[in-house]
Amino acid sequence: MPQTRWTTRSMPSLAGRCAVVTGATSGIGYEAALALAGAGAEVVLAARDAAKSERAIASIRRRHPGARLAFESLDTARLASVRAFGERWQSEGRPIDILLLNAGIATVPNREETEDGFERQLGTNYLGHFALTGLLLPFIRRDAASRVVEVASLAHRPGRIHFDDLQLARSYGPQRAYRQSKLAMLMFGLELDRRLKAAGSPIRSVPAHPGAARTDVFRRGDRAGPVQRLAGHAIFSVIGQSAAQGALPLLFAATAPEAEGGAYYGPDGIWELKGHPTRADIAAHARDKGTAERLWSVSEALTGIRCAV
Question: What's the pTM value of the predicted model, to 2 decimals?
């Protein structure tokens, strides 16, 4: 656990290292990409929108003129896109040092399905990232500094994995779906670290959460009307923190030598809503190994991608 207030100035040099950040065009993903590039990493912005990615790259380069940046098309809501990304990476064979699984969507008002038949929040936030990890694990450098960082949430605490209705076809609710997806991400991160350790791998899986960060994900993106956007902004302006501050626990998990595999990091303030990186609380049900192993098996079956450590 950090003993002082950890900031981006605490980050080690990342020269010669490669970071892949999903959902890096805005919010905490953009702030993480900005900080990683500033520390010297080559940063791959893995995102859906090429135009937004180019604007993000231009913005980062204004801050860090020598930054090494690249855009790669990726939509975690589409397994075809995830597979295509994996195939492109396999053809190049480049090693990855940091895989930051950040892309997400929240509180979709009405139930939607992805083209693969997944409930949209589960597919976007979790299943796409599970599949991506399975495809990229062979390229993650076997080194103690290498990390897989899964972005979870405070919302995991009331969440449950509804194996009897995983796609919430019978029991959909915006928060119910979001909580399940973020609990799944946390359980995946913890289970991945257990499996890495059992295999004798030095790679660390380190889940983290941003607290209540002011980003578009909690304003339902383009699904929100002006009233919803204004309300979301007002609430998070009071209780939350900036996207840059929210990115700090993710960056700590991704880069700090003292970040422990299988630990969980978040803000140090009241209720973990805002602050500087520290160890975060994990709900007891998120530690259930039997549930995590079942979720892993179900995820492999649903995605058709084996996540072999």
Answer: 0.93
